[in-house]
Amino acid sequence: MAQKHRTSSPVLSISLLVGLATASVGCGSGLNVNLVDGTHAQPSNVAMFFTVDDAEGEPVGGLAAESFVIYEDDQRVSPSESQQTIINQEVAAEHFTLLLVDMSGSVTESDWVPAITAAATEFTAAVEAQQQVGVYAFDGSEEIFEMQPFRRNRDTPAQGVARLGSFQTRDPSTNLNGALVQAAATLTAAMETSEAPLRFGTIVVFTDGTDRAARVTQSDAVDALEDGNFDVFAIGVGSEIAPEVLGEIGISGYVLIEDTASLTQAFTTIGERIIGQTRRFYLLSYCSPARAGVHEVRVEAHQGELSGDATYTFDATGFGPDCDPARPPAFEAREGAPRPRTASRGGAIRLEVRAE
Question: What does pTM read for this prediction?
Fold first, then answer.
């Protein structure tokens, strides 16, 4: 099958197709701020966990505590008195990425395997600096195969990804849809082991063709991905995989390349997107001056002349002094907590990277 693809190195171009977002977000002048969760506790702690994106849906990372202005009941809260601070989001949330690699007969019988292994290794090394990453392979079999268990890079490089290079295909067919359903279940199970109250999942799938095994329908596969509240990116290589299939599977975006010459760049593009999405999350904590009653807190995010806001309502009954804003907030534990999307089946914002 490898001879079907041209060996010239294409130029990658990126286009953004923008539609109407369906999520409830605070929209100011150019920034979209989406509240993921909020919490409050005595003595007077209030914390909000939210994301920040620009008007085109691109993640906005690197904002400092000074980039946010807090209002209670439309009255500005003094930054010095409230001791507002950005807490490391790892105390409240953990991110997981599952890389699913097509190792069907058309792949393992070609000369692509070294390039795939190298690209997957670079991708894993980059993303696991921010998240827990697991690597799985699929062919025509009903089950997917673990290459690298979920882990986060703590100074030691992953070894399991190299197992892709020696993978032995059990069934030469392509069970793409079934593998996606299996990946969704595997990712959900991994997220459930986390001690963080908020857990977020991403699936990245690489394939060289459409589903041939017909074990699971494409509609059922997409339903499983959306039911898990995952971000999903798809990488397709060659002419067999249709762009509309990649677009349906790649809820959050897809890459379509003509041969393996651009494979590393494709994985890099998706990896940078995932890391950027991780950095768009902010955990802002402060000490409220309120001592009784129900109040609405509004947080404004500012980046240059751009701004946006999100709100949260809390009850200050029993509030008092001696608040420590650095204390980790106690969010309610949720597996697969809703995550603001860059795209959806209805078409919010879709990243499309194509070879030309």
Answer: 0.85
